[in-house]
Design brief:
Blueprint: E1 10-14, E2 23-28, E3 31-35, E4 39-45, E5 56-66, E6 74-80, E7 83-91, E8 94-98, E9 103-106, E10 111-115, E11 120-125, E12 133-142, E13 153-157, E14 162-165, E15 168-174, E16 176-177, E17 180-181, E18 190-197, E19 204-206, E20 212-219, E21 222-224, E22 227-229, E23 234-238, E24 243-248, E25 252-259, E26 265-269, E27 272-274, H1 277-289
Antiparallel strand pairs: 1-26, 2-23, 3-4, 4-5, 5-12, 6-11, 7-10, 7-12, 8-9, 8-11, 10-13, 14-15, 15-18, 16-17, 18-25, 19-24, 20-23, 20-25, 21-22, 21-24, 26-27
Length: 321
């Protein structure tokens, strides 16, 4: 997934100093962003005052959108470096193409995981013949310094482990939950799970006290540690818990995202995660010159040009404003 904003802003994030050991309940409101002509997303990370949850550095929630008479998602070829992209659907399909030659249709509750490493390009689109509704989330995971220059690769996992309890079904997207581990490759301690709650259910989900967590509300109405979350909102929970109490007022779906607080300070601009202004500037130049990121073949349209860099110097800072 690309950040298609033509006036891309610099986001500085990372560092442990702003992650407290005690639990918090910080409700994050989304910012609405257009992706092309027919898709609008609700951007939860980076957010005013909160930039990361563990290594999770970017979260968009979109839909449910009725695209029966629309082209649906149409994201032209664009570059990434220094991160992993996670495609997660509840309804609809997304066709992924990348500069490695990957061609994969991603369907609901299947994991599309692209590791950009040093450089990759990809496109995402609704297939020509697509379902009526499109609903999902697009997320980025920042790569730590030791792994951010790995060779790019793409993974598709149609079968993922599940954990069940009365009124709860959890699909393990990344990392592990209650002993069940996702096959998706990770490079730092983190987890992601899709939680489906039946109306009236009140489970308690085991969590790691050393991880910080956030919950993205996908559908329905639920309480997370006593706080009501509605679709398109995210509750940041901090660290220090061993279990997370949930209660569903209606049938509801949530994404639980967590990870060890990310120690390194990062610089995120447009679709790049780096460490210095020179690194970001070189990546932009390489993309515009047609170098390094490769070519996405088969997409019917032009690739996405990079916006201009801001005139002020870029500097990596901590994880909150």
């Amino acid at each position: 997934m690309s950040n298609l904003e033509r006036r891309a802003t610099v986001t500085t994030c990372g560092g442990r100093q702003d992650v407290g050991a005690a639990p918090v309940r910080e409700l994050l409101s989304p910012r609405r962003v257009r992706l092309g002509e027919s898709t609008e997303v609700r951007r939860l990370l980076p957010n005013l005052g909160r930039r990361m949850i563990g290594a999770w550095a970017f979260v968009d929630h979109y839909g449910p959108d009725d695209i029966a008479d629309e082209p649906g998602m149409q994201v032209p070829p664009h570059p990434h470096m220094g991160l992993q992209t996670v495609s997660w659907l509840h309804e609809g399909e997304v066709l992924h193409r990348d500069s490695l030659g990957s061609l994969q249709t991603i369907r609901p509750r299947e994991l599309g995981l692209m590791t950009s490493g040093r450089a990759i390009a990809h496109s995402e689109e609704s297939p020509r013949d697509h379902a009526r509704l499109l609903h999902g989330a697009q997320l980025w995971v920042a790569l730590p310094d030791a792994h951010r220059h790995v060779e790019p690769h793409f993974e598709h996992h149609a079968e993922l482990p599940a954990v069940t309890a009365p009124g709860l079904a959890a699909t393990v997207v990344l990392g592990s939950v209650d002993g069940a581990a996702s096959p998706g490759t990770t490079y730092s301690p983190l987890m992601g799970a899709d939680l489906t709650l039946a109306a009236g259910a009140a489970p308690r989900v085991p969590v790691e006290p050393d991880f910080e967590y956030g919950v993205l509300a996908m559908a329905g109405e639920a309480e997370v540690d006593g706080v009501t979350v509605l679709p398109g909102s995210m509750l940041y929970l901090g660290a220090g818990r061993r279990e997370l109490p949930l209660r569903a007022a209606t049938d509801a779906s949530l994404m639980l995202l967590g990870g060890e607080p990310f120690e390194e300070k990062l610089l995120m601009w447009w679709n790049f995660v780096g460490r210095t202004q020179d690194e970001i500037a070189r990546a932009r130049e390489d993309w515009m010159a047609g170098d390094r990121f490769g070519e996405v073949r088969g997409y019917d349209g032009a690739r996405l040009p990079a916006p201009a860099l801001p005139p002020t110097p870029l500097k990596a800072r901590g994880r909150v404003r």
